[in-house]
Write the structure tokens for this entry.
Amino acid sequence: MTMAAPNVSSCLPSELNTFVGRRHEIAEVKRLLSEARLVTLVGVGGVGKSRLALRVGSDLRRSFHAGVWLVELAALESPELLVSSVLETLGIQDRSVRSPIEVLIEHLRDKDMLVLLDNCEHLLDECAAMVETLMRSAPGLRILATSRQALGVEGERSMPVPPMSVPDADGMAPSAEAMGRSDAVRLFIERAKAVLPGFEITDANRDSVAWICRRLDGMPLAIELAAVRLRAISVQQLLARLDDRFRLLTTGSRTAMPRQQTLRALIDWSYTLCTDQERLLWSRLSVFSGGLDLEAAEHVCAGPGIDPEEIIDLVNGLVDKSVLAREEQQTGVRYRLLETIRQYGRERLRESGEEAELKARHRDWYGALAARAQQAWFGPDQVDCFARLRAEHGNLRTALDYCLTTPGEAETGQVIATALRFYWIAAGALREGRSWLDRLLAAEPAPTLTRARALLVNARLAVLQSDFEVGAAMLRESQDLGRRHADAVVLAGADYVCGLAALIQQDPAEAVALLSEAVENHRAAGDQMGVVNALMYLATAHSLLGHAEQAASLYKECLTICEAQLEHWFRSYTLWMFGIETWKQGDTARAVEMEREAIRLKQPFDDRLGIALCMEALAWMAAADGTERAAVLLGASQESWRSFGGPLFGYLAGYHDTAETVARDHLGAQAFDAAFHKGTEMNPAEALAYAMGRGAPRAKQSRDTSPLTRREREIAALVAQGMSNKEIAASLVIAQRTAEAHVEHILCKLGFTSRTQIAAWVGEQQGDSS
């Protein structure tokens, strides 16, 4: 006879530690469950699929009359016992001769129940067959599964579970607000407090905590294992030792499944689920950094054991097993290994004896990509070329690092870094380009033509950073080598860089002399791109000297050449400078359209510096109109310069100062300051739309309309979301007592006695500002 399940609402384990973050993912899983009866959380081991499923199940306890039940499959090695294990979990005891699936169907047929099937990947076929049978027979049943790959059942909705959010790595120290937005940081703090009750984020450890979370890819298991080490070492020491992460992160829960006790055990588990060819490809893919496309995998990874035509099926297999993440990007479909999985694959590659060969093949592939990009830069494929290089930035770094660290390869590295000269500029990576070139040049000092070209590019980057003295020294050596090797392109390029340096240092007469020679020498060498590059700055030098006709003629010649080549980058900068000259000659309407066209050309490159320069020019052009537009644009432009960490090019500073003076005189000091402030409060998208003539400055709520400080308004909003003081503290990465004090101040200032009143007040404020 069949016995009923116990009269309880669910069978979920109690959480032994706090659940952190995942608000968006929780909401999305609930939405999917409202639309589909089978939802599978897909992701690599350690990413937090099980904890996410458990939290959703806990939240939905009251939504299912027959309860929420967890069926753990990780320890189940015999597929034949799958259905029996489900019966056991549900508390169903049956002594008949019926098959287990029949018993299960009978029990679930009229039940309104949610079943969590955890860790299905090693029983994928069996789970799929069972689930499909149950879904047909039990209309009130919903299943939330976790697996490294989808079950493949009709009607299934799969949801990839990403790593936790980490602070952006933008080269700046993360703010407290940025840290508070990161689920990975919040998890690290919670787990650190479990071993060090007094642990908190301080100015001294903020950067280290951010980098730990980044280096661990926001992987919850990795972060939890790392935090345990704070019993013995400091945060800074932990960060320093992460390179040897597999040796370090070995202390997991003694009660966890063996494969969950360490990262290695978890990844070993995924590895054993792969075929021999998939394992081989996994190890070879470890030479890539920051992702790859199918073409790169075919060229780099094919070889003994894998034919090129087999790569696509093997890649699909690794995607299905959550070893590879599939990503849709502007350049097409790309694939990515999480860093932890990549390092595991690298160990396997090293053991195989193939590492040196694969790294060389990787370098050759990306060296060829850089060479093709150099050829394609001045033409119709320029935008696609730039997008491809940006997507492959991590791999380009890896290729250069190989050249730098492998004896005898530095000259090849110089070739690659030199071929990327326009990418370094367009991507705003001047410092990085110089760093690679500095080290590669130091590693191989032979007086070759390759060195001459690398020195020339390095000098150019130095000049664009206003590092004139260092740039001049490199130029002299480049010119000496150029003359020794009789290379006209190097010599013409040196004239150009010298002329650019003179222009930036506000010596337009010297710039005219040098750039005129550069134009002629580039023409003689047949270097059309060099001609355009020198022409547009020669025209600018003439413009600064008041030679209007010569400047206009040279700008037009530039545009003619660029338009014939369907080129964007040089054309956008020519339009920016020609627009300024056109405005100086009195045709403001045409000048404005030229600046806006320049912005349109710059947008595919995400050329923030170039766009800011165009916005500056539009502000100058608006100054004489007597409207607030100039002041708003100047304010927005100031925010751009602040983000770049530097002022305008020196030879343009006079225009800025004049425009500000004129606009202030027209508007009056108070109106100018108010309009300028509107500009500073615009986000980049709003500022761009305004510059392009779309929309007006968004009205901002006056800072004086609320008695609360900015921090208090932020905390009031979190109170309105229903957060406790503890949750607010975790969200903002502040002490709980600090959050409590803020809430008390809010209640006092607003004259309220309850958190409900705060929530209502926040709603009213939001309604007033909408």
Notes: Residues 727 and 736 are 8 Å apart (CA to CA).
